[in-house]
Write a structure and sequence with these properties.
Blueprint (H helix, E strand, L loop, with lengths): L11 E3 L6 E3 L4 E6 L2 E4 L10 E3 L3 H9 L2 H6 L8 H17 L1
Antiparallel strand pairs: 1-2, 3-4, 3-5
The chain binds zinc ion.
Zinc ion (ZN) binds next to loops.
Length: 98
């Protein structure tokens, strides 16, 4: 009687930064548009997505190990400046509401 779990209701993804699994709701979807990493908080942009915690520490790890080009299957280095700005703003906004 231990069959059903809630896993199906909350699909899990791996954060490309810290490599920990989390539900999609906890992670920020990233897509590559040309050679730029673009945050996709609503999950509406087409194409392959990578998932990362919306935290600067996870973003740093992902950038350092070049996880984004690998996860998004693009050859070149990706510009993560806009993504970093987004994550920093999100982090500040979340702290402000606590
Ligand atoms: Zn993470």
């Amino acid at each position: 009687m231990s069959g059903r779990t809630r896993a199906r209701a909350c699909p899990e993804r791996t954060c490309v930064g810290c490599r920990e699994r989390a539900t999609k709701a906890e992670l920020l979807r990233i897509v590559a548009i040309k050679d730029t990493c673009v945050p996709d908080p609503r999950g509406t942009l087409p194409g392959r997505g990578a998932y990362v915690h919306p935290a600067p520490v996870c973003l740093d790890q992902a950038v350092r190990r070049r996880a984004f080009p690998r996860a998004l299957r693009v050859p070149g280095p990706l510009d993560t400046k806009a993504l970093r700005r987004y994550v920093e703003q999100t982090t500040v906004a979340e702290q402000a509401t606590r």
